[in-house]
Amino acid sequence: MTALRPEIAETPQAGEAATGDQQGPGLVGLHESIAALLASRGQWRQAYQHLRSALDLVYADQVEEPQVPEQLRREVDRLRREHAEAREQSLRDSLTDSYNRRYLDQRLMDLLAEHGACRHGLAIALIDLDWFKQVNDSFGHLLGDRVLQRVVELLQQGLPEGAFCARYGGEEFVLVLPRVDAATAVEIAEKARERVERHPWQEIADGLRVTVSAGLAYEPPADEAPERPAVSAEQQLLRADSLLYTAKQSGRNAVAYRADGRVRLAGAAAGRRAITETRVLGYY
């Protein structure tokens, strides 16, 4: 459809304001923008009508460009907002409103590709609610859903710029912490664990107690470890999962991480005598 005129194919991305050359020649550009946005939503008939209007203006051999109606401008703005909102919702978990697995996979690939250019590294904390099946069995799934929502709120508090929380699946979540050093990553993960443990869960239901365990995998910048092979998103998550297993097997309600070649537990859990260490291929 847009092949009828080369300029029409150069429509702005959803959510971006069309300015300058991107906007096109006034009224023609607005018709083209509406056509592109409607086509992206599968509304082909309406898109075709706006495209025809744009083409009619192009070939009308008008002396001067007609004034753009304000209503048409508002229609473009509305469609762009709806398009941006629809895309954002497609990347969110419907229950917790955290990002979903689709967004997590996309951002991890981007971050792992670019982290070597960052001043600091990239940390991934895989977090799992402890004994969550018992919560559902004892208090019901509706209350279990409320617990998941509240846990996400607690995990997201105080995250640094660029960091985010995503639902990995079930009662597992991931904190992605770009551009932080190893010590800061451990501190962030441990504070998140503490917030969950200290939250007044009894206000939701008498006898309710919720804790989380976490495995924190850290990838340093490439310029700090040039001999270290690059890792994929899957490898980074595998390392975090291995450390999560360590936290679970070492008593739960803990953050496990690796430093100086050894697995350690953060915060109050550091004093535990028994730490179950697992090995992941390629983990240094």
Automatic annotation (TrEMBL):
SMART domains: GGDEF. SUPFAM superfamilies: Nucleotide cyclase. GO terms for molecular function: diguanylate cyclase activity. InterPro entries: Diguanylate_Cyclase (IPR050469), GGDEF_dom (IPR000160), Nucleotide_cyclase (IPR029787), Rev_trsase/Diguanyl_cyclase (IPR043128). One of its GO terms (biological process) is cell adhesion involved in single-species biofilm formation. Residues 1-25 are annotated as: Disordered. Residues 120-260 form the GGDEF domain. GO terms for cellular component: plasma membrane. NCBIfam families: GGDEF. This is Diguanylate cyclase (GGDEF)-like protein.
